[in-house]
């Protein structure tokens, strides 16, 4: 059969047929909100753990020097700030590494949640740390 018309010669050849896309694979996971919230909780928990551990170390390690209470309290606050900063750097490296690895492995949302939780915790942690510093400098115990 030939197609009548001046623009085409030879037998009629239909164009490509529409083919529906293949169904998703069985092992392919989607991002689930519950798993994202678990990841957010893990990251925020890590931020809070660094604050609590730094506060505990500041109270236990920095002993009274006998000079004055103000010097001792400011030493504790300085120790807390350094310990918290080191802890936050460790949390940053761990969250970035674990979050990216889990996201690439398509874990269902925990890796993405860890990255989101790290960012949210980064906003909350300085506020909590400021309160701990004020408490250490004023000499009141939490």
Please provide a written account of the structure.
The protein is mainly alpha-helical. It has a domain at 47-138. 66% of the residues lie in helices and 0% in strands. It contains 3 helices and no strands. Helix 1 runs antiparallel to helix 2 (69-104), helix 1 (33-61) runs parallel beside helix 3 and helix 2 packs antiparallel against helix 3. The radius of gyration is 29 Å and the shape is rod-shaped.
SSE blueprint and pairings:
Blueprint (H helix, E strand, L loop, with lengths): L32 H29 L7 H36 L5 H29 L4
Helix pairs in contact: 1-2, 1-3, 2-3
Hey, roughly how much beta strand do the residues contain? under 5%
User: How many strands in all?
Assistant: 0
Helix content: 55-70%
Low-confidence stretches: none
Radius of gyration: 29 Å
């Amino acid at each position: 059969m030939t197609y009548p018309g001046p623009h085409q010669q030879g037998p009629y050849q239909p164009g490509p047929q529409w083919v529906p896309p293949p169904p998703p694979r069985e092992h392919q996971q989607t991002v689930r909100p519950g798993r994202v919230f678990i990841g957010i909780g893990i990251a925020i928990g890590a931020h809070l753990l660094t604050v609590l551990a730094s506060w505990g170390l500041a109270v236990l390690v920095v002993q009274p020097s006998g000079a004055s209470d103000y010097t001792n309290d400011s030493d504790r606050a300085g120790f807390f700030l350094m310990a918290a900063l080191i802890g936050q750097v460790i949390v940053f490296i761990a969250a970035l590494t674990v979050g990216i690895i889990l996201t690439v492995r398509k874990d269902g949302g925990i890796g993405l949640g860890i990255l989101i939780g790290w960012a949210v915790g980064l906003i909350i942690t300085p506020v909590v740390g400021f309160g701990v510093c004020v408490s250490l400098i004023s000499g009141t115990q939490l």
